[in-house]
Amino acid sequence: MTDRSRYCIAGAFVLGAVVAFGLQSVKVHHREPASAHQLRQHQKAASKSASDSLSNIENASQKGVGAIKEGIEGCIGDTPLIKIKSLSDATGCEILAKAEFLNGAGNSPKDRVALSIIKLAEEKGLLVPNSGDTIYEGTVGSTGISLAAICRARGYKAHICMPNDMAIEKSDLLLKLGAEVERVKPAPIVDQNQFVNLARTRAREHTEGKEKHGRGLFADQFENEANWHAHFTGTGPEIYEQTGGSVDAFVSGAGTGGTISGVALFLKSKLPDVKIVLADPQGSGLFNKVKYGVMFDPKEREGTRRRHQVDTIVEGIGINRVTHNFEAGRELIDDAIRVTDQQATSMARWLVEHDGIFVGSSSAVNCVAATKLAKQLGPGHRIVTLLCDSGARHLSKFWANKDVGGAEDDVSLDKIVAS
Ligand SMILES: Cc1ncc(COP(=O)(O)O)c(C=O)c1O
Question: What InterPro entries would the database entry show (predicted)?
Fold first, then answer.
């Protein structure tokens, strides 16, 4: 080996050593400090847990919890089932109520019905959005309010015919929702100016006339199958699911009969032993129809009736004719309980005083009947009923002059249901 070669090898060795050392030092220089490493680990863990939570949220929203709802129609249904503590404690039964006043469009169970009627008409090609098509309905208020709100959301107009003795806040609300409102004198169903008959006529006039755009559709909640169907596919299954299929009795008033029929048809198909009980206000003939097969109320006696319709302060339930929606489930109704106006008003006050629940007249009737039924059945049973609408809809009538508080309200539940 020449000297030159030796120098070359030694040089290469030194250079290699220097490069190796340099690289090592570069590597050492770039190694992460422990804290940054830990931070990365934390970030990894945090992002995993965030993605876990996201997938939890996604799962939850698929189940309907916290989901983004598709318009106001998306806020209809899936209402909470509330235990009414005061009534449950006092009777030893679990008295549960579907909070139907929390339906998001018109704030009553009629949201389900209005949406169902509109969707069915759309499927049949009877309604075209933004064409001037108008929905006509005869209603004591709740169905009209639901229809008016949903009509706005889907590009239709609403025209509501209602008796002129219903609480004024209902027609005020309808006007604010942009509906046309006709308040007419209460009349028997044989009268062509009765509010339901008038709505049918107005729909026909719209379609046949030249002066209005689009066509008129009579919603016909009393006879339309879409009514009980909404409760058969919505309210009934929700009750079944929320109670885990454990229900002894379902109690409801009937206006059109859609609620009691739809829920009865669903629940009895799953739970053949469940008791279906009608809550009927004074003046309504349905109590006797269920109990004895005859449509008659003593208040209907010649010379004793004060109003043309059902003689009660209660709005929305009680009727003196059999409708298709009531007939759909009538044979499944096991019993009926009569509720007086006095009992209903006292119960409404009781619910505010003891539970902070402020409801309208039909909800109060339901709660009286549920309490009477609990006393009949004895402790240990589970009874489901409905809270239909808020007391705010009834300030000028049912709730007029009924302030809560004071000795007058200090009555026992026994006294209320016995009054
Ligand atoms: C406030 C209220 N509750 C209950 C009902 C009764 O429901 P249904 O018509 O399904 O018998 C009505 C009916 O109009 C109502 O307006």
Answer: Cys_Synth/Cystath_Beta-Synth (IPR050214), P-phosphate_BS (IPR001216), TrpB-like_PALP (IPR001926), TrpB-like_PALP_sf (IPR036052)
